[in-house]
Amino acid sequence: MEILVVDIGGANVKVRRSGQEAPIRIPSGSTMTPDTMMEQIAAEITGWTHDVVAIGYPGIVRDGAPVAEPQNLGPGWVGFDFAAAFGRPVRLVNDAAMQALGGYAGGRMLYLGVGTGLGSALMVEGVLQPLELAHLPYRKGRTFEEEVGREGRERLGKKKWRRRVIDVVHRLATAMQADSVLLGGGEAKRLASRIDKLPPGTRIGSNEDAFTGGLRMWEAAQAP
Questions:
Q1: Looking at residue 223, what is its pLDDT?
Q2: Vertex 134 angle, CA 176 and 173, to 5°
Q3: d(CA 180, CA 160)
Q4: How many Å apart are CA 58 and CA 96, to the nearest integer?
Q5: Are 149 and 161 within 8 A, CB to CB?
Q6: Residue 175 and residue 206: Cα distance in Å, rounded?
Q7: How far apart are CA 98 and CA 101, in angstroms?
Q8: 3-class SS at 22?
Q9: Nearest Cα to 183, choosing from 108, 127, 107, 100?
Q10: What is the separation of C-alpha 7 from the centre of its chain, rounded to a whole number of angstroms?
Q11: What sign has the CA pseudo-torsion 20, 25, 30, 33?
């Protein structure tokens, strides 16, 4: 079964098919609508074959469909028929949940995606639970996302931002009683040199996690 994985982000949409080594990147941003995305994906994957599609969506998902518009993209995502647009069966989850699924290695794992915003998900003994922690209040009237996302790094500077992220990871890992933490997102690599300050069992993820998660969304359905 050929699986097309689409990871929708605030800066880029990454598209990759099972068997490929690297994704195609399509710039996104505040003007990206689902129609625009589909036009650009169609132009990039001409000649590709795939049987099913796995999508990571940067917003709240219920019953396999978006129920809230994303913070960092254009409008029109709620109610959009992805299966009709792709002409294939589609499974759609929150993008942080897809990365958590891909990077999971057992136990009770908290995933935090530090990028344009803050994504979150929890894996408990193989069961995936998407979370929405980004917009909870954190300090001085700002949310977790406003302090540890890209906006926070640009406002605070790298050293202060790192201290904020370390504090937030400790708080959330304790609240979720996590055995381990997986840090993903475009900003996570900036924390690699401070991994010793993070909770024991913290790992820095990669873009590969999203792709693996997309594959697992469909491969799990084929298991007996």
A1: 42
A2: 20
A3: 24
A4: 8
A5: no
A6: 24
A7: 5
A8: coil
A9: 100
A10: 7
A11: negative
Structure token digits, residue 146: 């406003």
| Residue whose entry in the numeric block shows the structure tokens 């098919």 | 17
pLDDT in tens, 154-166: 999 999 999 999 9
Name which of 18, 22, 65, 15 is nearest 40 in CA terms: 15
Task: Kindly list the averaged pLDDT for each block of 10 residues, start to end, along the chain of length 224.
Answer: 94 92 92 97 93 96 94 94 97 96 96 92 95 93 94 94 96 97 93 93 92 91 45
Distance in angstroms (rounded) separating the CA atoms of residues 65 and 101: 18
Token digits for 48?
Answer: 């590709």
Give the C-alpha separation, 167 to 138, whole Å.
11
SS3 state of residue 90 = strand
In this structure, the number of other CB atoms found within 10 A of the CB of residue 154 comes to 10
Q: Which residues contact 196 (CB under 8 A, 6 or more apart)?
A: none
Q: What is the pLDDT of residue 220?
A: 64
- For the chain, state the CA radius of gyration: 17
What's the residue count for the chain?
Answer: 224
